[in-house]
Amino acid sequence: MSSAGSGTPTKVLSIVGAGRSGTTVLAAVLGEGLGRFDAGEVRWLWNRSLQEQRPCGCGLPLSRCPIWSRVIQGVLGVAPADQTTSLAAAVDIVAAERELTLRHNRLRLLRSADGRHTEWSALRLVRAVTSDLYSRLVDVTGAGVVIDSSKRPADAAVLAALPSIDHYVLHLVRDPRAVVDSWGRAKPALDGTTVMLPMRPAKIALRWMESNGSAELLRRQLPHDRWLFMRYEDFAAQPRTSVETILGFMNEGVATPFANADTVVLGGNHTVAGNPDRFRSGSVTIVSDEKWRRRMPRHRQLATAAASLPLLHRYGYPITGVRSS
Ligand SMILES: [Zn+2]
User: Fold this and answer.
1) Distance, CA 193 to ligand 1 centroid (Å)?
2) Domains plus CATH for the chain?
3) What is the whole-number distance in angstroms between the Cα of residue 66 and the centre of ligand 1?
4) How far apart, in whole angstroms, are the C-alpha atoms of residue 56 and residue 274?
5) 112: part of which helix (H) or strand (E)?
6) Backbone angles phi, psi at 139, to 5 degrees
7) Phi/psi at 252 (nearest 5 deg)?
8) Which end of the chain is more exposed for a tag (fewer CB within 10 A), N or C?
9) pLDDT in tens, 88-116
10) How far apart are CA 20 and CA 129, in angstroms?
């Protein structure tokens, strides 16, 4: 395992929360500054992206991406272009990650964020691999700050316990009715290779509760100054101010790629995985997607609100008063 050349801990921001909460675009904006790197949803690296040769944000398979091919080869000791050998080398990592995220291990893993459970062999392996991965990522990219939009609190718990990582968490929450509406329709992929299929409303509401409930459990394990809560709606209403707030939370300079208060210029990226929006580049205007308010049936809005209590109230979203036409 290698260590960062400077010997200083790598600054990593984990974005946690439910899917379709705006994490992809926020991570892209945060990763756009000098010295910052948007790694995408790193959680998928070993168990999906490498196995299925899914494209990096640069459009190339990970095995040919100039960033990730070097990082993967460094961690595994074999070139990812040799798929059979690299998959065999990653099989223990995939098995350990699977063990950590089993439902009955969830609480134990979240509580490990303070560094405990060093006797848990699967956790020891994933911690070592994760530390090595980020160290090599910094070596290859030269970045001082890495954005990981894996969204899953479990992955943030692993990062929080690593002495080689200077770790911060951004908990991004979106109104569950908007999330249900978004998941209710397929997400076409801009690269033509993947499509995010629609899901049933009850299942989405349950996932929203589980994701944010796990985030709340993780929050209790971490120092207050390492945790920032933000609503997607507030970010979308004031994008530049919100990004400056996040950078300030990480004690980073507030240079942002905004052309004005809500328009950002995005270059290319090397995101491991994530929402198809990660393939967007150029000038992007950030606006809150509120179409669910008029197209979502009222009975579904109310059912989603009922299923999302009491976190709905905790995050300041109204239970009623939303009108569909
Ligand atoms: Zn790439």
Assistant:
1) 16
2) 10-314 (3.40.50.300)
3) 6
4) 9
5) none
6) -60, -45
7) -105, 155
8) C
9) 889 999 999 999 999 999 999 999 999 98
10) 28
